[in-house]
Fold:
Amino acid sequence: EAKKETLGFQTEVKHLLHLMIHSLYSNKEIFLRELVSNASDAADKLRFLALSNDGLYEGDSELKIRLAFDKDQGTITISDNGIGMTREEVQEHIGTIAKSGTKQFFDALTGDQAKDSELIGQFGVGFYSAFIVADKVTLTTRKAGAPTDQATRWESAGEGDYTLETVEKAGRGTEIVLHLKEAESEFLDGYRIRSIIRKFSDHISLPIVMDKEAAPSYDDEPEEGEENAEAKEPAAPEIVEETINSASALWTKSRQEISDNDYNEFYKHVGHDYQDPLTHVHSKVEGTNEYTLLLYVPARAPFDLWDRDAKHGVKLYIRKVFITDDAEQLMPRYLRFIKGIIDANSLPLNVSREILQQSKQISTIKAGAVKKVLGMLEALAKNEPEKYAQFWKDFGPVMKEGVIEDHGNKERVAKLLRFSSTLTDSTTQDVTLEDYVSRMKEGQDKIYYVTADSFAAAKNSPHLEIFRKKGIEVLLLSDRIDEWLVTNLSDFADKHLQSVAKGDLDLGVEESEEEKKAQEEVSHDFESVLKQIKEVLGDKVSDVRLSHRLTESPACLVADVYGMSLNMERIMKDAGQ
Ligand code: ADP
Ligand code: MG
Structure:
């Protein structure tokens, strides 16, 4: 339908717009980065679809992004000849927030501007950042392959609603006109725009072009004796387009050529993040199966870290052509927070999803990439322990999945784990298994741990009394995943992991003759008491034993060596088993 319709923004969009305009104002120039990033994604998508249907190029295969400004109109225009959008797509993408984690995001908002602006960064700002500087945005777009009279115009003042109408558009792709607020006229300046692009978008591999501005002319006055009559009438300046970014895929450059800023800005583009990453690895792997990877660890966990349907963060390219950003086979699940790109040299360009899934080369690349990521994390832990501590706080529980999921790298993942322990009794997880082993008492041959459903319960477990008395360190495990972790990690460095709550305890530390004698006496005294307790409890328990492991509590429950632990029983119950 050609008629113009007015539609209301989803409530969340209204809320987000309001919040963004206020909290990101001090960083307002990021609107250009976000719009250029979208234009670049749109070109990537078109290039991929055109691999199997080059009619989509409509004779124009030189993909680029154009920037222009008009001082008189007070507008900045960003246009691309990428994939474009249908009317339905415009409505779906520019008017609603389909992102997973949206609810958690809004729940997490505090009303405190500083905190909220950090959250908004984690959530991703995207297209709507245009409204930080514009009081009206007009987006006109035609999907590649659609007839020229089937383009869509979306327009909004960024308040409650927007309009949609079907219009004509000769070229495919998307054009966005920002009608700048009066106070933002500083952006109507070629020098300013160029410097923003160099700062934020230099890594974009597509050319970003602008009209060259006429240099001030010094020969307006014809020189004496010159006979050129036409020179009096200024010739219409010839418009020359110039490319204002370096327009080459960042990852193909050598590390020395890339600045920290370039690495960070590239991350924000591929990771759809607003904050700098924590660390990265950039590496070219040679050989028959050649590939380049540039992978990052975000500074903060995304909102959808626990969402099973969340998109994976690693984009697959083949010889610089974007193939997919949904290649789950590139990273195992426990490394789902890793963002970046892998560019494979030796895969055929016409790969399909099915081929990807079965490709031996892809699994080789995945195995290599996982090793690089683990190496990056090991280096971070070794060289920048504070950053690693920050990483662990956000991603620790996910890394623990690695012990369960990644058998081939179990040992390496185990070394990256961090725990709380009775050494400090602090909730901060900073003890490595290697630390623990190096502190083991003479004669101690096991790594002891206690699991509970809260840190306080773990720390105050009566099972710990004898260990505390004897000065034996115990790991305090209270993350939800910990039960699964210890059932999958039975050994580390040839030391058995042993629950303090299971079966008999042989602390390996010799008891003195006196102690033994005293224990025997006590056992004898309590024989009849134990018998009575057993009778009362009946088959609620499998045994009642006298224990020497408690020093303060009168009694505790102990699981069979081969039985489920009590905490595990609780978890199974929760899960409806
Ligand atoms: P994100 O880029 O993180 O998906 P944005 O808010 O920046 O979020 O963009 C939302 C969506 O709108 C994009 O995912 C894309 O589908 C669509 N979109 C935005 N800009 C363009 C464009 N220039 N060409 C085609 N689609 C676009
Ligand atoms: Mg975007």
